[in-house]
Write a structure and sequence with these properties.
rod-shaped, 4-stranded antiparallel β-sheet
C-alpha cells in the first residue's frame, strides 16, 4: 500500500554515515475512498440478498481500515513506521491511505524561530556580559530528527545555547584593535561564525540553520558603570590624539610658510615660544584669550 524511494544526498552525511531518509508514497486518498465506497456498496448488496456474512465482513473491513487515512498539509510531513521499523517519509501534500497498523508521526518542515534567553557569560577577556540570540531553523531530514536524537526541539535549544556561550567566550565584547573581531563592532562576522557553529552542532538532528542574529548584548550590571567610564576615557584619549596630531601639523605648516615668505626673522627661542603659544591655542579646551601689549614708552 506504499512504496519506498531511497534518497541519499552527499550534503546530508552525518558522523554515523549517510542519511537514511526515504520517500514513502501512500495510496492516494481519492482511490482509497473509491475502494471503500465500492466495498460498502457490496456489503449493502449482501445484506439485501440475505448474505449476512458477506455484508458484516465487508463492513468490518471498511471500519477497520478507516484508520489508515492521513492528510499532509503544506509544510508538514509524516514519518511512517511499521512494527518498529522505519518505512519512509511522506512529504507530498494531500490525503493518503496506508495500512492501519503503520505508525504515523507528524513532523513540521516549516521555518521556525528560537528566541534564546539572555545568557550571562564571560567574553575572551574575562568580562561578564549578557548575550541573547534569535535563531532561524527548520527540519530538513526527518529520519535524523526522529531517530537520531531524543527530542529534536530540546536538542536545538540546548545546542544553540552551548554554541552561543562558545562564540561569546572566544571574542571580546569590545577591542581597541580595529583588526580584532569583537562582539559589539563586528556583529555580522560574529553571526556568521555563530551560524556555522550551531549548524555543526545540529547536523545530527537533521536541522538546517538559516540565520542567527544577536538580540541582546551588554555588559553585566555589576561592571556596566566601570566599563562605561572606561569607554569614555578611551574616547577622550582618542580625541586628544587626533587633536595633538592636527595641532602639530598646523604648527609645522605655519613655521614653514613663515620661513618661505620670509615674513620675519625669528631666533630659536622665538620659534619655541611661538610653537608653545600655537599648541596652547590649538589644544586648549577653552577659547584662547589674546593679550595685546599696548604700553608705549614715553619720550623724554
Amino acid at each position: 500500500m506504499f512504496q519506498n524511494q531511497q534518497q541519499m544526498h552527499p550534503q546530508e552525511e552525518t558522523s554515523s554515515g549517510w542519511s537514511r531518509e526515504k520517500d514513502a508514497v501512500g495510496l492516494p486518498g481519492g482511490l482509497a475512498i473509491a475502494i471503500h465506497l465500492i466495498l460498502v456498496g457490496i456489503a449493502i448488496f449482501g445484506f439485501a440478498t440475505q448474505n449476512i456474512p458477506l455484508g458484516v465482513g465487508l463492513m468490518l473491513l471498511v471500519f477497520f481500515t478507516l484508520g489508515g487515512y492521513f492528510t499532509v498539509a503544506p509544510g508538514e510531513s509524516f514519518v511512517l513506521m511499521m512494527f518498529g521499523k522505519y518505512v519512509g517519509t511522506v512529504k507530498k501534500n494531500g490525503i493518503f491511505w496506508t495500512l492501519p497498523w503503520v505508525g504515523k508521526q507528524r513532523i513540521s518542515l516549516r521555518t521556525r524561530t528560537l528566541n534564546g534567553q539572555q545568557l550571562k557569560v564571560n567574553d575572551s577577556m574575562g568580562n561578564p556580559i549578557e548575550i541573547a540570540c534569535v535563531i532561524v531553523w527548520k527540519v530538513t531530514d526527518t529520519y535524523r530528527s526522529t531517530f537520531e536524537v531524543q527530542n529534536y526541539e530540546s536538542f536545538v535549544a540546548m545546542q544553540s545555547e552551548t554554541a552561543i556561550r562558545h562564540i561569546a567566550a572566544t571574542h571580546p565584547y569590545d577591542s581597541d584593535d580595529d583588526r580584532a573581531i569583537s562582539l559589539r563592532r563586528n556583529a555580522s562576522e560574529v553571526c556568521d561564525d555563530l551560524v556555522k557553529e550551531i549548524q555543526a552542532r545540529l547536523a545530527p538532528a537533521g536541522v538546517t540553520v538559516t540565520d542567527a542574529s544577536l538580540s541582546h548584548l551588554a555588559y553585566s550590571p555589576e561592571i556596566a558603570g566601570a566599563m562605561l567610564r572606561r569607554q569614555q576615557a578611551a574616547a577622550v584619549i582618542s580625541a586628544r590624539q587626533r587633536i595633538v596630531e592636527g595641532a602639530v601639523g598646523m604648527v609645522e605648516m605655519a613655521l614653514q610658510r613663515i620661513e618661505e615668505k620670509k615674513m620675519v626673522q625669528m631666533s630659536e627661542d622665538q620659534k619655541a615660544a611661538m610653537v608653545a603659544n600655537l599648541m596652547t591655542v590649538l589644544c586648549s579646551e577653552q577659547s584662547a584669550q589674546p593679550v595685546v601689549n599696548t604700553s608705549v614708552q614715553a619720550s623724554s
